[in-house]
Automatic annotation (TrEMBL):
GO terms for molecular function: dihydrofolate reductase activity; NADP binding. GO terms for cellular component: cytosol. This is Dihydrofolate reductase. It catalyses: (6S)-5,6,7,8-tetrahydrofolate + NADP(+) = 7,8-dihydrofolate + NADPH + H(+). The keyword Ligase does not apply. Keywords: NADP, One-carbon metabolism, Oxidoreductase. PANTHER family: DIHYDROFOLATE REDUCTASE. Its EC number is 1.5.1.3. Key enzyme in folate metabolism. Catalyzes an essential reaction for de novo glycine and purine synthesis, and for DNA precursor synthesis. It comes from Subtercola boreus.
């Protein structure tokens, strides 16, 4: 079992503002859907709340949701109360578990040696944020990147992969 983290960040590492991703980048949503469909995803409860209702649960994926509140539940979500329990449930060899957000969970997941892959969408966009991507420290190698691409919306972006 390995953990892969996937996020999209604007300049300065902004990943969210006021409960949403403060941009519209359809190419990133397609990338996210392609990489995660068919796998299990794990997200924090605030990220679950942020998903547009028609995409909740994310179709074609097992949706694990971390909450400290043991009374929390939501249709289509499998509630879990600590990441250790999640890792325990995922003994399937070779299977990847995608960590899909948000800021608090990325920081926690990065601490695990099981976290060996990052898929980061970089946006060449300045926006106000209140939630930030975790630091990508020297333990990570940048193993692939697309060139800068131009979205149908005009935003410049690229897909970057890290491994350790
Ligand atoms: C944001 C959406 C926002 C607004 C409308 C639709 C990367 C993303 C995440 C998590 C994007 C979002 C959507 C449409 C496609 C749906 C998911 C919801 C699907 C992440 N690079 N991008 N994310 N979506 N962790 N990393 O929550 O999504 O996948 O079926």
């Amino acid at each position: 079992m390995s953990l892969a983290l996937i996020w999209a960040e604007a300049r300065g590492g902004v990943i969210g503002y006021d409960g949403t991703m403060p941009w519209h980048l359809p190419e990133d949503l397609a990338h996210f859907r392609e990489l995660t469909t068919g796998s299990a995803v794990v997200m924090g409860r605030r990220t679950w709340d942020s998903l547009p209702e028609r995409f909740r649960p994310l179709p074609g994926r097992r949706n694990l949701v971390l909450s400290r509140d043991r009374t929390w539940s939501s249709a289509g979500a499998e509630p879990l109360h600590d990441l250790g329990a999640v890792l325990h449930d995922f003994q399937a060899p070779g299977a990847a578990l995608w960590v899909i957000g948000g800021g608090e969970l990325y920081r926690l997941a990065m601490l695990s040696p099981l976290a060996t892959r990052l898929e980061v969408t970089e946006l060449d966009l300045g926006v106000k944020g209140d939630t930030f991507a975790p630091p990508v420290d020297a333990s990570w190698d940048r193993v692939a990147s697309t060139p800068w691409l131009e979205s149908s919306t005009g935003i410049r972006y690229r897909f970057v992969t890290y491994a350790r």
